[in-house]
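Name: Putative membrane protein
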Amino acid sequence: MDLSWIAFLAGLILFFGPHSVRLFAEPWRQARMAAWGEKGWKGRYSLVVGVGFALLLWGFAGVRHEQAALFTLPAGLGLGMRHLMALLMLPACWLIVAYHLPRSHFKVRLGHPMLLATKLWAFAHLLVNHKPVELLLFGSFLLWAVLDFRAARRRPAAAPQSPSWLQTGMALVGGTAFYGAFALWLHPLWLGVSAR
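Structure predicted for Putative membrane protein:
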C-alpha cells in the first residue's frame, strides 16, 4: 500500500470518526464536552476533522490517477449522467449556504440542509465516478449522510423560526455563486480535476 492510499484511508477515519461520534457514542461525547467544555470539544473536533479532510484530499488526488474505472457507461448515457450531476450540484450548493442562514425556507422546512446537500453531492458524484477509490469516497459520504440524517430527525427539534424570504434569496444567490466558483476554480485547485 503506497503513501497516497495510507493518507486517504487515514483521512477517512479522521474525518468520519468525529462526525460519527454522535451516532454511535453520544454518552462519551457528552462526557467529553463536560470535561473539556464546549469550546475545548469543538477545538479538538475541528482539529481532527481538518487534518482528516486534508489527508483525504491529498490521498484521493494521488490514488485516483493510478486506477481505472470498474465500468464505463455508454457514451450517450455517460454524457447524460454528467449533465444530471451538474444539475444536482446546484441545489446542493443552495442547501450548503442555507445551512448558515437559520431563517431561510430551506433551513426552516428541511431542518438539516447540510446533510441533504451531502447526500445530493455524494449521489451526484457516484453517477459519473466509477474508480474504486471514488466509489469508496462518495459511497462513504452517502452512507454517513443517510445515517446521520435519520439520527438527526429523531433528536428533539429546535423551536421553529419564521422563514425569511431575504435569507432564502441569500441562499439562492450565494449558493449559485458558490456553485460557479467551485466548478470553475476550487474543484480544479483542490483536486486537480475539472468539474466541467
